[in-house]
Amino acid sequence: MPRLAYLGPEGTFTEEALRLLDPNAERLPRATVSAALTAARTGDADGAVVPLENSIEGAITTTLDEFAWGEPLLITAELLLPVQFSLLARPGTEIPHIKRVYTHPAAITQCRAFISRELPDAVVVSAPSTAAAAQEVSLPGSPYDAAIAARIAGEHYGLVELAGGIGDRSDTVTRFVKVSRPGPLPAPTGSDRTTLVVFLTDDHPGALLEMLTEFSVRGVNLTRIESRPTGDGIGRYFFHFDFEGHVADARVGEALAGLHRICGEVRFMGSYPRADGVAPQIKRGTADAEFAEAGDWLDRIRTGHV
Ligand SMILES: O=C(O)C(=O)Cc1ccccc1
């Protein structure tokens, strides 16, 4: 039974994602994404489940930066989870009396319309997670009047639901990933995704285009690209890429090798099954068999067998 750390406490969306990814895992709640990843790195846990991005606000930057700067980890699975938010409070609280709301920043950005319509005068404070907010609000002396969290977190911490489905959109999805210390890769399934972090050592005109060209000429379809500051001053960035395919695919392997040749550092973050099961688009001339045939053709030339 794997032991998986996650952004806790009990009742977070991350816990729901973990239960779906690995129903048999032992769950080890941690207070932050960083603490969950540290547990995976040190061996306190066999792996971790953390949020990576959502369909409204984009990346969870703590996760991206941990992946780039921390000890290497490997993504082995992903999950897309539709999330529904509820306004939760101690029994007896009424919406007009709510002055201070506590929740995770991703919930604040996804419930903006509700907050400005129903709680225009409330101060909204960032919490380490939605369930941490619900837990805090449940304490009798809490400085907060309400939390925004999953309905189940309200049930868990003895809060009542004052409003449900309060997200700006009903179709919001969060993408979670399971990570472990580097080891064997999940086998290719025919519907896979690969994640990389790429650092440039030599900034010059066209550097980003050169990276993109490595994908483009091999027919590799990108599914996410993100730039993050390196911290070394304004204008200094590194890049995250997600794209279709598995590193075992010839076109993906060739693109990686090309990036390795032209970029400062390429951190391979894993090839793993896609949660949506979508098969990659394979352009003419970029299938494994076509790469193999072209390699054989080149060998014949080089060995004088044309
Ligand atoms: O705080 C949580 O419950 C999390 O798992 C992070 C999060 C917050 C809001 C939307 C999706 C994930």
Automatic annotation (TrEMBL):
Domain Prephenate dehydratase: 3-181
One GO location term (cellular component): cytoplasm
Pathway it works in: Amino-acid biosynthesis; L-phenylalanine biosynthesis; phenylpyruvate from prephenate: step 1/1
CDD domains documented for this protein: ACT_CM-PDT, PBP2_Aa-PDT_like
EC code(s) of this entry: 4.2.1.51
Chain positions of site Essential for prephenate dehydratase activity: 174
Alphabetical list of PROSITE patterns matching this protein: ACT (PS51671), PREPHENATE_DEHYDR_1 (PS00857), PREPHENATE_DEHYDR_2 (PS00858), PREPHENATE_DEHYDR_3 (PS51171)
GO BP annotations listed: L-phenylalanine biosynthetic process
Keyword terms of this UniProt record: Amino-acid biosynthesis, Aromatic amino acid biosynthesis, Lyase, Phenylalanine biosynthesis
Reaction(s) this enzyme catalyzes, per UniProt: prephenate + H(+) = 3-phenylpyruvate + CO2 + H2O
Top-level taxon of the source organism: Bacteria
Gene Ontology molecular function terms on file: prephenate dehydratase activity
Domain called ACT: residue spans: 196-271
The name this protein goes by in its record: Prephenate dehydratase
Organism annotation: Nonomuraea cypriaca
Record lineage: Bacteria, Bacillati, Actinomycetota, Actinomycetes, Streptosporangiales
